[in-house]
Amino acid sequence: GEEHYNCISALHKSMRGSDENASLYWLARMLEGGEDPLYVARRLVRFASEDIGLADPSALTQAVAAYQGCHFIGMPECEVILAQCVVYFARAPKSIEVYRAYSNVKECLRMHTGPLPPVPLHLRNAPTRLMKNLGYGKGYKYNPMYKEPVEQDYLPEELKGMNFFKERKT
After folding, report:
1. Which keywords belong to this entry (predicted)?
2. Which of 21, 48, 105, 118 lies deepest, with the highest CB count within 10 Å?
3. How many CB atoms are located within 10 Å of the residue 19 CB?
4. Is the peptide bond before 76 cis (omega within 30 degrees of 0)?
5. Which one, of 17, 67, 24, 77, lies nearest residue 46 by Cα?
6. At 152, is the secondary structure helix, strand, or coil?
7. What distance in Å separates the CA atoms of residue 140 and residue 53, rounded to the nearest whole number?
8. Residue of 53, 56, 144 lying closest to 101 (CA atoms)
């Protein structure tokens, strides 16, 4: 029932709040109450990117490994795998930078009226002679061939200067 959602919310918020003690409690309460360990593991995969993100990029690897470990061995043996992951996440630094930036991109796409801007010609592949003659790929600078980053636009002209990592005004 509702307690299923209440407990996962409490686990999520305890990890977000860096409370390893409460995080373990909510995990155990769920597992000992019969919760599917793969459900918990899936939520940890989401948490790794949503709440920890680039503050600790290894968090996603930890979460996927925990999911795979639970899948391989099941309960009750996988409980310690989930416990390790939960404590790791509670102790990890947190960042929602990517989560917010992606939300800003989605908002930009939803608020756009009319056809979406085309992919700039220099970013398009030119697998055929016709495409090459139409200018596909013309002027593209292949970064690995340069010692320094190159000046090149990657967004459509209509979005030039847009920075999704900055807070958007609604």
Report:
1. ATP-binding, Nucleotide-binding
2. 48
3. 14
4. yes
5. 67
6. coil
7. 31
8. 53
CATH class of the domain defined by 1-89: mainly alpha
Summarised one tens digit per residue, pLDDT across range 145-156 is: 999 989 999 999
> Per the structure block, which two tokens stand in for 79?
């409980």
Which tokens belong to 108? 């930009």
Write the CB contacts of 166 (distance below 8 Å, at least 6 apart in sequence). Answer: none
Write down the pTM of the prediction: 0.84
Domain ranges (residues) in the chain:
1-89, 114-154
**Are 51 and 23 in contact, with CB atoms under 8 Å apart?**
no
The C-alpha atoms of residue 34 and residue 4 are separated, in whole angstroms, by 10
pLDDT in tens, 7-23: 999 999 999 999 999 99
Structure tokens at 19: 């409370």
End-to-end CA distance of the chain: give it in Å, rounded. Answer: 36
3-state secondary structure 34-103: CCCHHHHHHHHHHHHHHHHHHHCCHHHHHHHHHHHHHHHHCCCCCHHHHHHHHHHHHHCCCCCHHHHHHH
